[in-house]
C-alpha cells in the first residue's frame, strides 16, 4: 500500500525535512500480517471440525463447548489486557501474543490427548484476546486521523476476513484436498508461521514513530506523532474510564458493545459453522467446501476496505457522528436484508454461499465503522475501549456458541445408525449407512439442512438488532473528554 492509494492528504510532508522514510508502511505490513494470521489460526478450528470431531470422538454439543472455551478466555482476559496495552504499548504485547496463540494452535493437533486440545483452546483465546485493541492503539499513533479509518479497514477488516477466506482454501482445498496432507501436519505448519511472525514483529515494530530509530524527521512530521505525545505511556484504570466520561459517551459505549455483541453472534455462523453445514449438510468434499465456505469471508474482506474508504469520505463531507451512524446502520441493515433472501436458497449451496458473500460485504462495512468509532470515543483510552467492547461482545458470543452447539444437527450418518441400532444392534455403523438407498440418503440430508434454519434465523435477527444500535451512537463524545 502506498500514499497515493489512500488519499492525497499525505502531502502533509514538510519538504524542509527531506523525503520521509517509510517505516509506517513496514508497521502497516506487520499489522496486516498479524490480522491475517490471527484469523487463519482462529478459523482453522472451524474448517477442521469434521476431522477434529472424528479424531477426538466429539459430539456437536462438545464442539460447541470448545468454541465457548475459546470465547471464555478470549473475553475474560480482554479488559485487563487492554489496560496493559494502554500502559506498556502494543510492541511487546503483540509480539508475545502472537507467539502464545501460535503455540495454542499447535496443541489442537495433539489427538487423542483431550487435555492438550482444551489447553490449546485456552492459549488460543488468551493469546488473541486484545490483539485488535493493540492494533487500534498502534494505528492511532502511527497514522494521522484523516486516513486512519482507511488504514484500520485494511488492517482490522480486510486482512482479517481475507485470512479467514485463505484458511478455508489453504487448508481444505490445497493442503488436504489437493496435496493430501494430514490435518495435523497442516496445523503445525501454520503454527510455525505464527512463531516467525512474532519474531519479525518484535524486531520491526515500535510503539510510536518517535521510538523507532529509523523514522526520520520528515516522516515524523508527516505522521504528526498521531494523537499522543511521543513516548507518552498512559497510566489508566477502568475506574478512570467510568469516572472521566460523560453520560452520553457512556451510552454510546454501551450501544457499541451491544452492536458488537449482536455482530459477534451472527459472525460465529460464518467462522465456525458454515464449513460444517456444507460438509455434513450438503456432503461437499473438502475441495468444494473450502472454496464455497470462503466466499462469505472474501465478502467481509471487501466490505472492510469499502467501509474504511466510505467512512473517511463521509467524515470529510458530513459530521463524524452521522457518518458513523449511517455507515453502521446501513451496513448491518443491508446484511439482514440479503441474509433474509439467502434463507430461501439454503438447499442450493453454491448460490447460498454467494449470497452470504454479499451479506458479509455489507456487514463488514459496519465493522470498519466500529474501528473508527472506538478510536473516536476511546481517546487516550483507545485500547481499553476496544477491549471493553470486545469483552462485552464475547460474553454474549459464548452464549451463542453454546446455543449453536445444541441447535446444530448431528452428523447425518450418526442419526441413521442410532435409528438402525434399535432393530439391528449387531450391524456395523458403516454397513448400515451403505444399505440405505439413495432416496433415503437424500431424505436424511434434506432433513439435516432444514434443521440448520434456527441457526441462520438467529443471525438474521442479530443483524437487525445491531443496525438499530448504530442509529443512536454518538462518536463525537469521547470518554477522555
Mean pLDDT: 81
**Which shape, going by the Cα principal axes?**
globular
CATH-assigned homologous superfamily: MFS general substrate transporter like domains
Class by helix and strand content?
mainly alpha
CATH architecture: Up-down Bundle
Note the run of SSEs as H and E: HHHHHHHHHHHHHHHHHHHHH
For the termini, the CA-CA separation is 34 Å
Task: List segments where confidence is low: pLDDT < 50 over at least 5 consecutive residues.
Answer: 1-16, 228-233, 414-423, 427-433
Major beta sheet summary: none
What is the CATH third-level topology name?
Growth Hormone, Chain: A
> How many strands in all?
0
Query: Which percent range describes the beta-strand content?
Result: under 5%
* CATH class category name: Mainly Alpha
- What share of residues is helical? over 70%
The figure for the number of domains is 1
The number of helical segments is 21
Q: Write down the Rg.
A: 23 Å
